[in-house]
Amino acid sequence: MVYFFAHYQYLWLLLLVPAFPVLYAVVRTLRRRRIRKFGDEALVDGLMPSWSGAKGWIRVILFSLAFLFFVLGLARPQIGAKLSERKTKGAEVIICLDVSNSMLAQDYSPNRLERAKLAISRIVDRLQEDRIGLIVFAGSSFVQLPITTDYVSAKMFMNSISTESVPVQGTAIGDAILTAVKGFSAESEKSRAVIVITDGENHEDDPVEAARTAAEMGVRVYTIGVGSAQGQPIPMDGELLRDRNGEIVVTRLDEEALREIAQAGNGAYVHAGNEEFGLNPVIDDIRKMEAEEFNSVVFEEYDERYMYFFGIALALLVLEMLIGERRPKKKLFE
After folding, report:
1. What is the pTM of this model?
2. For labeling, which of 24, 91, 207, 223 is most exposed (least CB within 10 Å)?
3. Under a CB-based contact definition with an 8 Å cutoff, are residues 161 and 193 in contact?
4. Ramachandran sector of residue 166 (left: φ over 0; alpha: ψ -120 to 50; beta: rest)
């Protein structure tokens, strides 16, 4: 049995659960301070014999638990009963993300790499039945996420990417493209595309030849240029990166190289902007390709569980309202 939440984003609301008792404690503290202004605290309490401080805490705890179960219900907990194979239609897209030190330049907010990760995450939200894979590269490349339709895992892997993901520094764009070509599934023949996100400063190999090889195999290569022609220094460990001569290293966008790569790969080049990063038009172009049919293994026969959580939340709220804040007038068995 597999348990998961269909709308997991609502789980962020659980951060509010501990805030209710804390807020109640603050209110009670302020109330005590106001009481002390009128006179002796014990005397004032004696004038209010029916008020129960313990019941106040019980009520706020019940309300917090009710809110917790309500949020869990909003997130739609489900149980997957079995694995089944179904056919889907779409494209296979492998994104090659540059994680070299030059991607730390801050001509995008907060820097090139984080801005690229955010754009990829938003694109994943737009995917429906397409498959996506992720390759990170610097001086070498490796598969961060094999081709999949598991978009939740794709976003989780995205969060873990940093310039330390590849130990060898440099920018081997060609190696990344060839690694991507090998990463497509055997059943994919037509709708295959590689999206390279980089500043274009290649120092290791021949990316144009790699793109041409990919095109010959029916794979389109798109390039997203990250950076500015004017160049930016690279902040590292609180300082600016310097070369062996002590000069500040400035990283510049090489648009000409990226255009040549895209042209050789039968794709297109897009300069990433601060607002529109460039992935949307590339994805739109890929969608014009002939969709292929894939066999996907998925969990089916999901059993919804949200109604139980809503029921518990309602019961706790009713109990919270029935308790009140006053002591009973007569003790039991008196």
Report:
1. 0.63
2. 24
3. no
4. beta
